[in-house]
Structure prediction request, 862 residues.
Amino acid sequence: MKSRHILAIGTALLLSACDDGSTDEPNAERQAQVQANPADGTTQSKDVAFVLGTDWRGSVEDAVAQLRARDPQLADALYAMEPRSTRAGTARFTGPLVRHPVAAAVFLDRLTAEGGTSAEVRAALVEALPRTTGPFGPAVVALLAEESDASVRAAMVSSLRTADAASALAGLELGLSDSAANVRLTAARTTARRTDGMQLKEALLTAAGDAELSVKREAIRTLGVLRIEAAKPLIEAELTAVDADMRLAAVRALTRIDPVDAASRVGSLTADADPRVAKAARKALEN
Amino acid sequence: MVGALVLVASACGDDAGGDGDEGSGGTTGAETESGASTGPATTDDPSMGSTSAADTEGETEGDTDGEVFDPETFVLEDVFGTPNLDDDDGNDRTDWLETVFEADDDVSVLDVPGAPEGYTVELVAGGDVYDFRLWDGDVFAIGVADDVTADTYSLEPGPEGATLDVEFGAFNTQGSLEVRLLDPEGTEVSTQEIRVMGSPLIMNHHLQPSEGVWVMDVDADFGTNAAMVGVFASVLGDQFDPVDDATYGFDVWVQDEIEFATATGLGSQRLDIVIDSVRDRGLDDFPEDEFEGPSFITSRWGDPLQATTWDSFGNLEASPPVTVDGVEYPFGKIYYGREGTNGLQSELGDFLASQTLQAPFEVDTLWLCVGHVDEFSSFVPDPSSDKGFKFLISDVDAAWEIIDALPPSTPLGRFGPDHGFATAGDLQSDAGLRALNEELQADELDPIRERFIAELGLEENDIIYVPSLFEDIPGCGAAALIPGMVNLIVSNPQDGPIDLFLADPFFRQNEGDQSGDPMIEAFTDALPEGLVPHYVDNWDVYHLALGEVHCGTNVLRTPSEDWWTTALPLLENDR
Prediction:
């Protein structure tokens, strides 16, 4: 058996499993057993399913209990798994073991476990939730209100890009009014990624007046991406902003909402001191 | 005349004199291609030539056999060598810090022609005097050794001539020797100045023949790269060397830990150098374990305590040879990611700039989460083109053109679970993703392309636009959404095929049928003839951890040019 990442990081659960030989198989083989058909998420190890009910905590507990009973090796592996270091040095859970619906239950359980889990690991657990292909939206929205670390909340908000609509909209609205600027910024950016994002129009218009410049800029960008007409006056006012990035966001937002109207308003910016703004303005005129 | 400083020295002359073609006679003024002459008879450089008393006074009668000695024939040739920075005797001490010894293959020679008895040669060192030294057999002659310094030396070559050993202690040593020939009465009968130069450190580029490819062999809970390793092994055979990743803490980024470079000298001298990154992750010991030894050294520049992602060597590359505004760069130009005060540490950047030949330039990579130049740019050979290469750059418009042409219901296999795009329609309808990529193209990739064009003298037909999409990694920056095909390696052994290894984009449902992948089709169609692409599965081990094939591989290459024949103007114009 080749050495393993999980062995190298010394996780107790898997080590004990290895001691009795129960996981004594190459990872590639183990992954093949688990992975099967990740594309449609239909294959579940030993028929352990995970469906979030109204009581999401109860659903998680049930799924985890089933998993421990029916596939203790997978349960141990998922509980023992630690994030790897990406090329950027950030922490991330990747690989076939993650790509399984029941992994969402385990990761949510790990998120709610008391103590011992660093913010970095919690953020990585959250980041991995969408890749499990399992349900997670309602749980993330609930945890968003409980999480104390802003970087973890930002990860939660970002994960909502692929969550069910009700959870995503509720969570993103929470995120847009979060106390931390980076969470509000992430919420604005994530809202732009959803086709139903315009349902958060009012929250975005409010965010476009955010005291934090980066949040304000991101909200204006999202208003443009989602082509929210009502935002045009607000955005137009930013064409003369002192901050060049804001002027750039405004030119682009107006162009996305109404290219013809934008062309009539950004002419003076073709000579902007910032070459990016001038280029965007020229492009708007070409349209 | 300065007397010789006698040091304790082991025998060196015979070996250092070289066997076969290892003498200094490999280059004559007539052989150089750069116009930089190495001999006085043909030199155009008044600073590097000779004058002879015989020019005006006629020939001088020698004292042997009644033959007439012509001082014009007393010509020494330039010395071009490698720095003696390795450890050929394996005693854990850099050879430059020792007296020369028989097994040392980084010692150059200075052949002093014969002269009649009683004639004396005076050598006067100039330039980087303390970065080279001369030995006359066991006798220390010029330079620095054991805290003794000397910049002049005299010897009587006699009718048989003499051979001195020359060592270099640093990269890009630019020294000289004034050579004065004195007759028995002490009258100067000729003088010349020769170059004594140590090789710059020269980073490899993709047109140089490959000698070996390294990849980490990964079998971990985060995935296995067995399929990818299998392709490398079957295509490359003996040129492939997988390394057990568990030995190095599951650090798969072998591109980031090391950068190969070489230094060369007359007589086929070659010193390989691993520039060892200060990133110091799991692979920290890899270069010492794998490469360090005779004719192979590891060196590092920078402060590990200040290391950032930009100090990884996916962020340090060299272009193929280019001519820019009439200036030839036969070793290409180095480029790396840095913008303002953020980027590759300046200690390394400044050192590379000091090597002169590859005139480094900076590119903005701050917009990326990882922040490396290999995430959006590369070069591949193009034997049929004038320049001999094509420049590859990521292009989001090229990707959207493909995506928008697909029926929205087209399933995208792995993109569903791992990126949240089950179909092409999911991508097409993601306005935020489209906006992000439009902005990256306009704000980052377009200016970067223009910078490469300006710095490398490129034309439009030198460029291949690689279909690419990026996604936002919250709080970090952009990263490849479609596995980055631009992030590739070139395997091109001498007289062998040109193989490219790059990420399988998996932009399809049927994983086993690459022929149905529109990204693969577009990339393959854009390649120059004669290149063989191998699209390998790097999804779990690399792509999902924000890297691709180039990030997880490294290639050793053969030096392909003699810097002293093709690049002296670059070096000398810098002084």
